[in-house]
Amino acid sequence: MKRQRFIKWATYVSLTTALTLVLAGCAAKGGEATSSTDSSAAAPAVAKPVEGGELTYALATSPDTLDPGASGFAVSHRVFRNITDSLVVQLQDGSFQPWLATEWTKSEDGKTYTFKLRQDVKFQDGTPFNAAAVKANFDHITTSARGQAKSLIGPFESAEVVDDYTIKFILSQPFEPFLSGLSSAFLGISSPQAIQQYGDQYGKHPVGTGPFKFVSWTENDEIALEKNPDYNWGPPTADNRGPSHLDKLTFKIVPEEATRIGSVQSGQLLAAEAVPPQNIAALKNDPQFQVDQAITNGTAFSLYFNLKSDIWSDIKARQAVQLAVDVDTIVKTLYLGTYDRAWSSITPGLLGYDASLENKIKPDLDKANQLLDEAGWKKGADGIREKDGKKLILRYLDGSPNREKRNDIAAIVQQQLKAIGVNVTLNITKDTSTPLKEGNFDLFGNSQVKADPDVMRSIFQSGKEYANGGTNWSNLSDPEIDKLLDLGSEESDLEKRKEAYTQIQQYLIDHAVILPIYVFPYTVAHPKTVEGLKFDLLGYPQFYDVSIHK
Questions:
Q1: 3-state secondary structure 463-515
Q2: Dihedral sign (CA 19, 87, 213, 48)
Q3: How many contiguous H segments (helices) and E segments (strands) does the chain have?
Q4: Residue ranges of the alpha helices (H) in 101-239?
Q5: What does the pLDDT read at residue 6?
Q6: What is the distance between the alpha carbons of residues 95 and 92, in angstroms, rounded to a whole number?
Q7: The pTM is what?
Q8: pLDDT tens string 344-384
Q9: Phi and psi for 42 in degrees, rounded to 5?
Q10: Half-sphere exposure (CA, 13 Å, Cβ side) for 15?
């Protein structure tokens, strides 16, 4: 076995430095939202933390479950990150340091990881944290059919207890994003006793080792947490690694934008996420308030063509749409300069982001019309194109409620494509799952959160069509792309990984598989009396250092 030792708090050095440039691309982009991603470095100096108090934090949507191993929602991650800790932590530069683990080794063939664990940790219900507890968590994850945790561990085969405080993970093949996955709260470690005790209801009774203990969850209202007084093993990303400065952390579910932001301005709540673009400038100019921003890394919000659609399987038809949609106008109109336009399938903060795609595609209605003419689609008397007696219709599927103004994007695309004779029908629904599974759509928008470009594998690898439980909304099936996706996930050489992901990104644009729209900045508004809020590499809030000053 090739030994790669990781001593606690030491600088990380190993083959996993494949992610050390994660934030390099982000820095190159400039702009306030991007630079503030590294909040630990950019945060202003604060006064000595005040002990006590309750932070009330408004969420825009409700979690699906608080079981990390079964959840698929980013909003759930924001809550249970405070209840559970992870084996390792990923730093802003993409490297890794120990957390609940103290060190680890990786085998020569990349298929085995062996972790030494802390011996001073207990779950909030008194259950000891040890190798058996970690194994129980991975057994729980692998038997769950839901959530993101499974995708984060890739070709995971088994977890073996070596001794009380040593756990071995065995993979069927090398998987470079494995450590990145382990750092996510979706792989946060839960109490095995609680998992067994509550069974299918564990998501309503989470128990971890984290800085806050679960108290209650009132559906569509609030989730209440309280300080874990025994906490003394915070991650190296936190200044405070002991018990929280806060006594309580309460998440309020407030879907309405005006209510959410108004509650902060009136003092009813102390912080709120998802600040609407129209409120950001006003709050930044108010001396009593602060807006924190962090880029949410993963895939950019993009529109995915259904390649199995009869009409839109034609590359010329897709390229016509690509040239007719004025993305710059959409982003500037809706987000008022607070969001960056996307040019690629992944965000600029990820390894291998291809900056050469920027400004590659520009609106060209003449060319768009030419492509449709060449494809045999002629404009009818009503201005809508026809071919063989069939109208040129694009079925645009989008979710409800209007998250991040995505419904507004759909409406603008509908109007823009009318100019080239495309009739866009909008299906705005709370249930996008059914039409996705049935294939009753031509264009669908989505984004995913992950700190590694391997996020593209679950979206574009063949055999992972949505109808079969995957998220391949485009139904892309290309053996060469599959090979590149496999190479990117298995290869430990940094440059080879980058090259694989560069080729994939270029293919997706050249073949008009997707239409990138925007890069999402996670925003939080709060009075300046709330200090110490930071963000992790995914753009999620961290509350270890938060305190409330009078």
A1: CCEHHHCCCECCCCCCHHHHHHHHHHHHCCCHHHHHHHHHHHHHHHHHCCCEE
A2: negative
A3: 18, 26
A4: 131-142, 149-152, 178-183, 192-198
A5: 36
A6: 7
A7: 0.83
A8: 999 998 999 999 999 999 999 999 999 999 999 999 999 99
A9: -95, -10
A10: 22
